[in-house]
Write a structure and sequence with these properties.
Two copies of one chain form a homodimer. Chain A is an alpha/beta fold. Helix content of chain A is about 35%, strand content about 20%. In chain A, α1 crosses α3 and α4 packs across α14.
Amino acid sequence: MRPVSIVGIGSTRFGRHKETPLDALAAAACREALADAGIAAPEIGALYLGNFIGGVLSGQEVLAGLVGHQLGLPLSAPCSKVEGACASGGIAFRQAWMSVAAGLCDFAIAAGVEKMSHAGTARVTEALNCAMDQQRDGPTGLSFPGYFGMAARVYGEAHAEWRSHLTAVTRKNKANGLKNPLAQMGEDVSAETVEHSPLVADPLRLYDCCPISDGAAAVVIAADEAVKERLSRAGAKAPIRIAATVQTRGAPDVASIRNLLSFEATVEAARQAYRVSGLSPSDIDFVELHDCFSLTEILDAEDLGVVPRGMAGAWTREGRTRPDGDMPINVSGGLLAKGHPVGATGVGQLYEAVRQLRGEHANPVKDAAIGMTHNLGGAGVVCTVSILKRADA
Amino acid sequence: MRPVSIVGIGSTRFGRHKETPLDALAAAACREALADAGIAAPEIGALYLGNFIGGVLSGQEVLAGLVGHQLGLPLSAPCSKVEGACASGGIAFRQAWMSVAAGLCDFAIAAGVEKMSHAGTARVTEALNCAMDQQRDGPTGLSFPGYFGMAARVYGEAHAEWRSHLTAVTRKNKANGLKNPLAQMGEDVSAETVEHSPLVADPLRLYDCCPISDGAAAVVIAADEAVKERLSRAGAKAPIRIAATVQTRGAPDVASIRNLLSFEATVEAARQAYRVSGLSPSDIDFVELHDCFSLTEILDAEDLGVVPRGMAGAWTREGRTRPDGDMPINVSGGLLAKGHPVGATGVGQLYEAVRQLRGEHANPVKDAAIGMTHNLGGAGVVCTVSILKRADA
């Protein structure tokens, strides 16, 4: 596999885009990424598009082909939708990387898109349940807030101060979101507001849950050897090297999950990502991870090894995961504040990491040279982890 | 990219499987393929699963993760659903090939699955429309039978004997299906029955349309260097070499389609497949192609270059595309008779081609050494073409 970098990024704002169709939303992010890369659509050799519930909520499949047509990609460029629930975007990125790294093409686009806000909360909750095993968990009436609520109860048994841990995650991410122009719901929020917000799935409250979001994100990937010449041009942005991008699987149903406080797919993905990149947790300067609920950030950070096991809640409360802390987590605002347009989320995390590594993020992490992204599907049935590096790191 | 072969195949019968859930159906085909290959689940490095409307009709996504769990694949094996409407299976195959050819793993499974019969004709027709551009064609009331009905009218203007051409396709494929133990609807059917069957989308009649089907198919793919040692064992089946597997895109909506009698995605895919394999149409011994309607077989055969442009109808009527003809097409019975469980179809075609090249097909083509498969999505928005070869060819 040859060295590959991200050379262009694009994203819509995360939030509400009721009037924009799915394909147009995705195409807008792709066009921005192409312009950022200085690469023309006819040069693109493949498009992978992450999308989860476009069929169920918008009656639209073959979305990758529609977007490829709108962009004017060559007929020879394979355009494929990939799906792995909330990790669809991370999968799209890995597939695009694979195409370029294997030498099938020099340039590829990885994009993700979702539209949910038009459907209303009840239909969205039902649609999200498509990520649940319909033979085993579906018939029980379990929902994803319900699942993570159960996990929060188990967490509470291990940590007497659980509530303050969760509140600290939400307050940090909402504050980070305030500085991110793409974020749906940044807010300077008090502990009291968080802890008195309506119960969604006891003990999780409204402020423990990510919002319902529309949005799209895209990155352009290039073989390093194919962009050498372009980089000598004035104004070219530094490519961000893909040091690792891996995908793993985990148990899909509650009865098969051994420990509600750790996702085996994340543990395995982190292990692989460190092995492939030759890096260790101490090399990581910041992480964008999958905080679909406040609790999930705590579990993810521990599974990824960037915070010691059992310590993520305390670290968060102590401010050690803030942008100026030991291990900045979700500087973008994360899913909790930036929003969670499901199929777009994994690519959106990469967008944020590239902005950060280029030194152009609105919420900068000092001397950031190596960043990690983590995208989780369902209750851990699929996970992708990527590590990005500045070329000089 | 290193040389890769198909070393195991599995398939359920195509037809009705109302009581079997989607994941179990797919897992059954995968288990059969693994047993056929003599490869254990823990050796598998990746699973790609083609599925189109499992979300809409069964409320089930993250299907690849569920199947990977049921099979007991390693946690390190990426399990991804891919979607490109009726070409989802062909896309899954190409992705699995890519993983192995690029050296990311030595063994991978490509599978496809669909369940439709439980939903009834009206819901299925609506679900299939997810493959249509919902901004442009969706609101017009167009359906896929409607689209191909329009194309059949154009075909009729060019060919006075159009009806006998379409009838000949249906009669051949139905007769082929009679000999295929996996086929849903083989039949020794008279021209009169075909031509007096109910109109579905004028001028297309019921016998011009493929049925609504459930089913799953799977193939195990291996790097040639990884199976050398196994092949020396007694009873090992000859691997079937993947000479080419390509994917292209085409116009997604009627207004963008220049010619209703040719799919640009197929023309481009065939061109690429011949180039990659170094073969030409005259080298192809048989073709399994995407006959979702009787007319489509005629258009596909001409687009693939295996029959001269404008001649496929006449060739079919003259018996030249029968198993004993110059260019055997859809010896399996094709979508018309074998059935069309949408996401499974592309992998089912590869299953049939491998059986044929191994010399174990119930409907043999004499001295078949090189076979082609062709899988089309929507009205040509995506296409995959693969060429398989016997190792001694």
